[in-house]
Amino acid sequence: MSLQKKDVEKIAWLARLALSEQEVSDYARDLSDIFELVKQMNTVDTEGVLPLAHPLEITARLRRDEVVETNERDRFQSIAPLVKNGHYLVPKVIE
Amino acid sequence: MAAPQAGHDLHQKTLAELSAALHERVVSSEELTRVFLDRIERFNPILNCFTTITREHALAQAKAADRRLKSGQGGPLTGLPIAHKDIFCTLGVKTACGSRMLDSFIAPYNATLIEHMHDAGMVMLGKTNMDEFAMGSSNETSYYGPVKNPWDPERVPGGSSGGSACAIAAQIAPAATGTDTGGSIRQPASLCGITGLKPTYGRVSRYGMIAFASSLDQGGPMAHTAEDIAMLLKVMAGFDKRDSTSVDRPVPDYTARLNDDIQGLTIGLPKEYFGEGVDSEIQALIDAAIKVFETLGAKARTISLPNTHLSIPAYYVVAPAECSSNLARYDGVRYGYRCKDPRDLADLYCRSRGEGFGAEVKRRIMIGTYALSAGYYDAYYLKAQQIRRLISEDFKKAFEDVDLIVGPTSPTVAFKLGEKTDDPVTMYLSDIYTVSVNLAGLPGLSMPVGFVGGLPVGLQIIGNYFSEARLCNVAHRFQQETEWHRMRPEGFS
Prior knowledge:
heterodimer, A: mainly alpha, Histone, subunit A, two-stranded antiparallel sheet, 4% strand, flat, B: alpha/beta, Amidase signature (AS) enzymes, eight-stranded mixed β-sheet, globular, disordered N terminus
């Protein structure tokens, strides 16, 4: 399997990763190699095999719908890159 | 290599020995802590195994531990120093996970595992270097530079818990925590000549452990001996309501069964683990270790895990898929790295992530993104989960006939720094014997069984679900008969 540069650019956009030209060509090669390895999965017939999503096949536990966390906005925002008046700042989204 | 002298070389001792020394008041926790802090200062510039040293924090904890010991309130681990992998959130202490993305991150809370260690009275020496977001098998993907293997500083310590393994091998920490998603405790333990355990999935809380692949990640102990591992696991393990996949099941006293007889135990040797690909000298050491088990009354027989060859392909779909989802949270907005002067929101996301993540993390995010993207889900993710079932069934079937499964931890000894960095596929294949254990969620222990060319070789013991006590028992009995776990690298005495 061979991935082209435009495939890598599309994946990088989906993953929101800015890549340099060099990275795009390096990853085109690496990802092609890796999916070549992954292709070995096709050597086995898995028709009818139930997918295993979780090793112990447990389902998520439910808890009571109660407030257990307190609001610690100031503490959590103290490690944010850019905040103002209790808000996280990002570039303007709506003109 | 040299066996340690009997005497006052505290750094060469095991946790169990140090615990006895603390309780007999031969040494105080503060004195012991200073011994290790001084050694960190001396050797870390060469080895690069710590990324943060918490000297003041450690001395305060040591003094508190001494008061507790004096009042007779101390437990077996009270006052013993430990290093924590920098993947565990530590309140008020930098938690960078080997990444530029989190270089500025001061954790606002403690991981449950850290709380357990603090409550037991253990002293945190600092945070250990690791592959970025635990993605790597050599510690070379760390933003903070590679860790050196104390047995040969030209070589890698393994990964991703390479800093933890290195710190123990060089005796600058008597124990450490690690995490294991595809072999990240066992493989570095093997390459550095120490003992490490990946517990059953769900045994140790994942709360506050920075997520890589949530259905595979599991924290666990690393130390010199199986006895030390048992002491640590007893405190680490347990149900945590803050981790939705934590298993609610009593924690046994892992130390109580260390000396159990292993007469009549059946050990399975998967023919797939002993094929070509394994170095013949490593093979000979594994065979010799099996002989030791036989001398102790265990019976060995060949078994088959027929889907072993599919574990790497399936793992490199499942783990990256989960990673691409987990790492979507790093957006340059709420915490972590943010690019300079973003033009718009998309630019903020793309450049913060493009600049904040290293090459291997980006590679895996892209593998996962592609595997999960529209039109490819069935061919990759679904197929990998079906293979995951086949691998799990292989183990289930094997454990109907045998009590334990044994083989090499890694196909090679520690490789040279830079040897595999340009070839991700070759690097991935070094996890061939460890990833299937994570896919199935089973516990696995690695311990040293000899040397090839002066470099340690590890043996892996895989057990059925929640058989950690048995793994520690079998490894302990082996270590009672052998001296491999007492070997220390030259230059760090």
